[in-house]
Design brief:
single chain; 355 residues; mainly alpha; Tyrosyl-Transfer RNA Synthetase; binds tryptophanyl-5'AMP
Amino acid sequence: QPRVFSGVQPTGNLHLGNYLGAVSRWVPLQDQMPTIFCVVDSHAITAGFPDPVELSEATREVTAAYMAAGIDPTKSIIFNQSQVREHAELAWIFNCVARMGWLSRMTQFKEKAGKNKENASVGLFAYPNLMAADILAYRATHVPVGDDQKQHLELTRDIAAKFNNDFGERIKELGIGVPNPTPSPELPEQLYFPLTEPMIAGPATRIMSLRDGTKKMSKSDPSDLSRINLTDDSDTIAKKIRKAKTDPDALPSAVEGLADRPEADNLVGIYAALGGLSKEDVLKDFGGQQFSAFKPALSELAVAKLSPMTDEMRRLMDDKVQIDSVLKDGAEKASAIAEPVLKDVRRIIGFLDVR
Ligand code: TYM
């Protein structure tokens, strides 16, 4: 049975990369299959505990951003991760499924831990296991994310495959698996966990910094000019686009001409994603034009798309009781799905259930 799961960390402002690479792409999925969107606060403490008041506030802000972007709490489950205990419980079990070697290869850990790995938290190292637990506690089949999460989703599949294999006989005996949709010699006929499909597509899977087309747009970049935040007002958006780094040439008339022009490629990709177009479409309209003509058009489109959302976010943030009640309702619905999954997992493993 198909099901979507995805999430964003409540660490600071959401930016255009989070919106175009992830949240905006979740909206149409709500009408296609069951969808669960999580504010992953347990992940937000892996790189150091944020200020407690700011963490709670950021959790509400991300919730408001989801709703302002069009995630509808009557269609989707929206909740914060720490409220559903099953995530932590399944993550522990996955700590014992995943191998040190698998996690040691995670590029995001290497980037985030920096030079001093000895000083990184154990939580930062085990981060991908918690992410696998988020997804598999709901036996979710589809995960829409940006390109930077690809390796974590491969690990999620590896964890699911190892669990299915290690407990293959037991799962069959208990009769609680689902038939393997793509039979192969490496996997048993009955799977308990699905092999999740990453959904990474479109012109905005990797939005780059506005100051450096070779670096990802990120919350942690010290320069605020490098990103467009969903809380930026129209003047700030226009200023950041005006100051965005570019090369001196005109825009090419075909996508091949964007190769080796990372800044141009990025701005064209942003225009395409905001306008619901392909890069080809954008170059049909703007090919041959200078950035002095393209940038104002991009600003206008960005402001037209983002400012109603920013206004709606502000409006939602005025009623915190309402946001908290959406999260409470979501947590109850999420628990109702995850609890029986963990009950199964405990049985599969052989944890004695005496209650
Ligand atoms: P996070 O909070 O870093 O980012 C949230 C989402 O935004 C995408 N993203 C981008 N997309 C395009 N261009 C960019 N520059 C850019 N920057 C970020 C990310 O790919 C992501 O989809 N580990 C995850 C959160 C998570 C999760 C999960 C996601 C925890 N559990 C389970 C899916 C399923 C993260 O840190 O995302």
